[in-house]
Amino acid sequence: MTATTLDPAIRVQGITKSFKELEVLRGVDFDVAAGSIFALLGSNGAGKTTLVRILATLLEADGGSASVQGFDVASAPADVRRSLSLTGQFAAVDEVLTGRENLVLVAKLRHLKDPGQVADRMLARFSLSDAGDRKAGTYSGGMRRRLDIAMSLIGDPPVIFLDEPTTGLDPQARIEVWDTVRELARTGTTVLLTTQYLDEAEQLADRIAILHKGTIIQNGTLAELKKLLPAVTVEYVEKQPTLEEVFLALVGDGDTANERSER
After folding, report:
1. Which helix (H) or strand (E) holds 246?
2. Using CA atoms, how far apart are residues 194 and 216, in angstroms rounded to an integer?
3. Per-residue CA distances from 67 to 2, 37, 72, 84 (Å)
4. Is pLDDT above 90 for 55?
């Protein structure tokens, strides 16, 4: 049975995961409301990608439970996979094919009717129609990432995981991806965004969870997180704390540099 509109689109309860002696996740808990953008913010090595892989049924948790659209990731993995799409840190497009051919290929793999019409609709949705007949290898970083997200959304999954979606992109390309993510949420898609970029979480997320050393140390809206710091001082202008200040105050700027590379 799928989730009702009152249930969270994603629910994570007490998830743990270790690799030999290394504890990567140590009891992670959070809910993601349907149609919202939820940012999982953390340094390299915090456990973000490990958690996403568990939610996407690519990796088994050692303990705890998780569900996507009401389906348990351990007992109903096929239903979970039908409910979501995952976009990794680097665009998974075929650079030899045109943008349209990439989309047609995915539509055929998903056994959809009229793959060409599906491809044209996605090109228009992501402002790529004019570039549809060009090889993807000629696309800018932002265009390539938008094509990658478009490919992920073929079949209209209600949930999409974006794992570090702007890694390696220039500022303009990042803005293009941000606009795409906002549009996804506006049209009702639930977005779980993992990022180490504080401004990205600040710009996009309805709620932000800070993952540090395998646990969620804070979870709330941007306004709620800013209230964790002392009240602002007023001299001539009011200075509100940035999300970066909140993050560093919570995790300590001394330990982030020594985090191990994330698995």
Report:
1. helix 243-251
2. 13
3. 10, 17, 4, 11
4. yes
